[in-house]
Amino acid sequence: MVWQIDLSGKCIVITGGNRGIGKAISEQCAQAGAHVAIIYRSSPDAQDVAKSIASQYNVRCVAYQCDVSDQKAVQDLFQKIYHDVGPIGGVVCNAGVQVGKPALEMTKEDYNAQFDPNVWGVFTCAQAAALLWKQRDYKNGRVVFVSSISGSIANQGVPQCFYNASKGALNVLAKTLAMEWADQGILVNCLSPGFVDTDMNQQLRDDPEKKKFYSAKTMLGRISDPSEQAGSVVFLLSDYATYTTGTQLIVDGGLTCW
């Protein structure tokens, strides 16, 4: 028998699932047979990405616009997704905001701009899924937060104190929710990527010397492709991860090992 992950029959909800790591997760979930619901805030390409994934993998893939900071709107949307796309088996909270500038220049607006989506918006989606599963007595729910190694280390040369703090908060939030929801059969984990070739790290694309500097920090000597992060998320969503909860899966090319 061939060892493979099968998510068929499940709908996986992915915030920010139309670009970067989120898009790679959407594609690999669909490849594993899952139907996909992408939640986005304003990206003009989200609908096209969803249609492309649906066509390529012969699954249902629908994009929904929503502000994840609106708790009631998120709960209503999860009910809609359940009826539109199918039973929700997992949620991947991937959307996030990064403001990079020195701490002495940070403002309350910068704080809110990051903690609102990076912590509160993540919580609203996890909560909406947990409420839905509790209502339907579903005991196999999966929640994955896309965090960052920045939640554990300062990242030399990257001034982003509130982004780092928000990801640190996310790591502890995952542990706490894993504890609270264990008796419902809900597993909550974090993926913590290192440096990944995404729009958020546009500086690495624009500056070859900076890319070389950060590549050299990893044991593998290179920046990650988004697809190399997505596989770990698919594993955490699968039936092969039934004893994994409250933990942080670090996929950083060995960067934090030294």
From TrEMBL:
InterPro entries: KR_dom, NAD(P)-bd_dom_sf, Sc_DH/Rdtase_CS, SDR_fam. The keyword Iron-sulfur does not apply. GO terms for molecular function: oxidoreductase activity, acting on NAD(P)H, oxygen as acceptor; oxidoreductase activity, acting on the CH-OH group of donors, NAD or NADP as acceptor. The keyword Disulfide bond does not apply. Pfam families: adh_short_C2. Keywords: NADP, Oxidoreductase. Residues 10-184 form the Ketoreductase domain. Belongs to the short-chain dehydrogenases/reductases (SDR) family. This is Ketoreductase domain-containing protein. It comes from Saitozyma podzolica.
